[in-house]
Design a protein that fits this description.
4-stranded antiparallel β-sheet, 10 strands, alpha/beta, 6-stranded mixed β-sheet, binds magnesium ion, Rossmann fold, binds adenosine-5'-triphosphate
Length: about 240
């Protein structure tokens, strides 16, 4: 397994946001984590990335225990998060945003940035413009591009389809599948259950910080009403 999370707990004071969560991502897999608002999805990804401290649990990446590693070290080793809400730097140019993606790299990265411009010509045409001029879809491409510059082996994406038009959502999922076909493993948090289950190999459903279901998309769809209950927070 590329990523192994075991018994992970995240607490914010008395708020127990993630409760003994276990999860794996195999090499070459797309794994999705589904759940309603507040289920603990972002907390889970942040704890894996190392920007939020886990109160308990173990995380192994590429066969190594990474619990003592800082977030930059995790990025440097190929574990990269595309955060919720893109978090791009709107006052910096497109190019500067992509350079930020390389902040943990010590080797040259111009080639990766050129590849991003080839993949996303809209970004290339706007490379010297402030990122604030980008559309929502272009900002999401920039956030993904910035993560790619870090040369990930596992990319975690936190609700990348949020706020995108239906056409752009389809394009986004095509991109995710394409990156995966090129060897990138993916951990995808989504509210767009239907699209996520179309692309993913496996999924987990989180409810109040706990896994209530996991399995293949077919297995999860079979229990559609339970899935809906977790998603809408009703029973
Ligand atoms: N920095 C924080 N301080 C205190 N509580 C927090 C903090 N971040 C998250 N929480 C709480 O932890 C719980 C899980 O939040 P989290 O953001 O992980 O959920 P989520 O599944 O990503 O939700 P959403 O779908 O709305 O993004 C929520 O109850 C939230 O209020
Ligand atoms: Mg979230």
């Amino acid at each position: 397994m590329l990523l192994e999370v075991e018994g992970l707990d995240v607490r914010y004071g008395r708020n127990h946001a993630v409760k003994s969560m276990s999860l794996t991502v195999g090499e070459g897999e797309i794994v999705t984590v589904l759940g309603a608002n507040g289920a603990g999805k972002s907390s889970l990804l942040k704890a894996i990335q190392g920007t939020v401290r886990a109160a308990a649990g173990k995380v192994r990446f590429a066969g190594k225990s990474i619990d003592g590693w800082s977030a930059p070290k995790r990025v440097n080793k190929g574990l990269v998060l595309v955060p919720e809400g893109r978090q791009i730097f709107v006052s910096l140019t497109v190019h500067e945003n992509l350079q930020m993606g390389a902040y943990t790299r010590r080797d040259p990265y111009d080639r990766e940035i050129d590849e991003i411009y080839q993949r996303f010509p809209n970004l290339g045409e706007r490379r010297d413009m402030p990122a604030s001029v980008l559309s929502g879809g272009e900002q999401q491409m920039l956030a993904i591009g910035r993560a790619l510059v870090a040369k990930p082996t596992l990319m975690m994406l936190d609700e990348p389809s949020l706020g995108l038009s239906p056409i752009l959502v389809v394009e986004l999922f095509n991109l995710i599948e394409q990156l995966n076909a090129n060897g990138l493993s993916i951990l995808l948090v989504e509210q767009n259950t239907r699209m996520a289950l179309q692309s993913a190999h496996r999924g987990y459903v989180l409810e109040l910080g706990t896994t209530v279901m996991n399995g293949t998309p077919a297995e999860l769809m079979e229990q559609e009403h339970k899935l809906e209950a977790a998603y809408f927070g009703v029973t």
